[in-house]
User: What shape does this take?
Amino acid sequence: MPPNLDNTLASILSSRSSQGRLRRLTIPCPEAVDFSSNGYLSLSSNAAVKSAYLSLIQPCLQSAGPESGFGLGSGGSRLLDGNSAFAEDLEGRIAGFHGADAGLLFTSGFEANTGLFACVPQRGDVIVYDELIHASVHDGMRLSRARRIPFAHNRVYDDPAASGGAGGKGECQSLDSLLRSLSEGADGADVRDGKKNVFVAVEAVYSMDGDVAPLKEMVQCVERRLPQGNGHIIVDEAHSTGIFGRQGRGLVCQLGLQDRIWGRVHTFGKAMGCSGAIVLCSSTARSYLINYARSFIYTTAMAFPSLASIRTTYDFLAQGRAEPLLRHLQSLIRHAHSLLTGIVARRRPAPELFRINPETPRSPILPLLTDRARGLAQHCQERGFAVRPIVAPTVPAGRERVRVCLHAGNTLEEVEGLCRAVEEWIVGTARSSRL
Assistant: This one.
């Protein structure tokens, strides 16, 4: 008699639990100070944003007819009954805001990446990707017909000092050496002659270390190694949207690279405070995605309430109303890093117990690196601070951490309280280890 499926699954879960890797759903404590969520600008709880959102949807709520454009659901995929003039106008507004030719909305960043990478690279093409690229890109690449090869995290050239990245395994080639090897010899003729496309997949800001891609150097490297124009860079701007660039336009716009980047994925579930995503690309690529991106074709379109929330937050950014929030957030980043640096200097903990990246962060993500991530997280949680331990396999073994995310809604006093809790844990843990 075949084994009971639930018994098989339970055995697998038990094995994962014994390794300390079992994932569980938890409900955030509403009284805890949020140092965990990705809502960096605190827009989802911002009174002005909520008021503007209600003002946008209120007329539709008062009109029940189909002419209102309002429904609790969209009614189907956009290729059937789920499209609307509002959605198409929103795509145009967002593309214009980010300096792109066109854009296509997806229901999530995960679906945007899986749809994009699964269908655009053709048979014989190559995808080279940062070794720490998001899981959604990996899933898209697995569905692709293209060959895929990683390069060392944030390393453009063979000299590690040229990139300044953090967190990679150090086992991969640099981007430059990888592109060079792809175009060498008889096997590289099609790449060298521009007959095969090479897609370069990177993130603007990496969610675990909060480090920023050396994007300008990457663009220069790709253009030099692939002068036939067959190198196409795709940037996931999930954690840079709303934070980098003028009025939160992202890292690509901050660096003025709009015309040199083939595609961008901007997601709305982080600093934008809502949900969904958009792929920014050429109008031709948009049409291609409409025809071949399965995660777009075979899913129910976002309903009007979701579209309205995206429109509201983009209006908020475009009007410059997020600028005070961003300035406050940047001051919190500097203050938190200064306090943590001071703790390390005073207490001199063993590196495996506690360490931080010495460079002042450019993003609101501060990893507190420790081989006792669960203990540190629990200590902070018990003192009213919502933080989460991040352990393998989400991050490589040896890179476990408590991931601190700062928000415009946090105060200096809250940051100082969190840092006091961290120092208290370091002192107590170091003392107990010596006993």
Summary: The mean pLDDT is 93.
